[in-house]
Design brief:
247 residues; mainly alpha; globular
Length: 247
């Protein structure tokens, strides 16, 4: 019975939150995908630096160790993007179309984060089923703004609305996998959680700084800068409000 509740809760927290986010991201905001890149930068950096990394440290990871893991993760995503670029260039040479490399990285990073949320959900359900459902609701509220930013990144990278929904739903389903793994071997899973969180943060930071910020610099008019800063601030504001409401 507990496992069934964990699976249901992770599906609600992972896939259902994606569907809710898609109602906004794939309708009203879709036409502004290129402008909303700045909003995505604010959300990704905000969650990575003020939510995910502190959570890893609070779970017992030494701050210096977290810094080194973060650096290793950023270098790892740099190599991953290099491989994706080589594949992209090869496919272009053969006349095939390929999406931007950040598509792969945003799905991987979000998938890792969702996996950890699934493990944590399993832990709460094994403590108290009422606490578990309360945590699932909190995760939905936490995931929606992040999923909207993910949709903006995918749409700006040239991914179709349908494919963006499928990719985000798949990364959301990683929460269910995390929930099952947590239920099967919670003690072992807990050891890995802080490390996975830092790697997820590394992916968000890398995508924001290495891929999205340079794209913003293509628009250099004063009004573009003002709009970009405003949207970044809006993204950070959503993260701050989300954290305030859930604490």
């Amino acid at each position: 019975m507990t496992l069934l509740q964990i699976i249901l809760a992770t599906l609600v927290g992972g896939v259902f939150s994606v569907l809710l986010a898609s109602l906004v991201a794939l309708t009203f905001l879709a036409r502004f995908a290129n402008r909303m890149v700045a909003f995505a930068v604010g959300v990704l950096l905000g969650f990575a630096l003020t939510d995910i990394l502190p959570e890893a440290v609070n779970l017992g990871l030494d701050i210096t160790q977290a810094g080194w893991i973060l650096i290793a993760g950023i270098m790892g995503f740099f190599l991953l993007e290099k491989l994706a670029l080589w594949r992209h260039d090869h496919a272009t040479h053969l006349g095939k179309t390929q999406h931007k490399p950040q598509v792969t990285m945003i799905v991987i990073g979000d998938g890792m984060h969702n996996f950890v949320d699934g493990v944590l959900l399993a832990a709460t359900f094994l403590t108290d089923w009422k606490l578990g459902w309360a945590a699932a609701i909190a995760i939905i509220a936490h995931e929606i703004p992040q999923e909207i930013s993910d949709f903006m990144v995918l749409l700006d990278a040239g991914v179709s609305k349908r494919k963006a929904l499928i990719l985000n739903a798949l990364s959301g389903a990683a929460m269910t996998l995390g929930g099952i793994v947590g239920w099967l071997s919670l003690s072992n899973a807990h050891v890995a959680i802080p490390y996975i969180l830092v790697l997820a943060a590394a992916s968000f930071i890398y995508i924001a700084v290495a891929d999205l910020v340079p794209e913003l610099h293509h628009h250099r008019k004063p009004r573009d800068m003002a709009l970009q800063l405003s949207l970044m601030a809006a993204g950070l504001g959503v993260v701050a409000l989300n954290k305030l409401l859930l604490n």
